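[Q] Does anyone have a clean structure-token version of this?
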Amino acid sequence: MVWTATISSKGQLVLPKAVRERLEVGPGSKIVLAERGGHIELHAYGGDFSRWYGAQKVKGPQDCDAVKQASRKARAQEVIRESQGD
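[A] Here you go.
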């Protein structure tokens, strides 16, 4: 299947209904965009931040935004591994 979408002046992309249904996403859902082999892949984000509690080894107070970013990156990498069948 091939779908097209238009990017708005604000850089927003509206996913076609068929894509939203296939990914099982709706308003407020998160998706993961992964670049691989010169292509961008879309994956439904199936986890939440609490799932990663303890995944980042830290000493003392940390920058919450940096921890969130690292957790998002780790989740994106997990999605890529899962999609590759590893």
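[Q] Thanks! Anything notable?
[A] Residues 17-84 form one domain.
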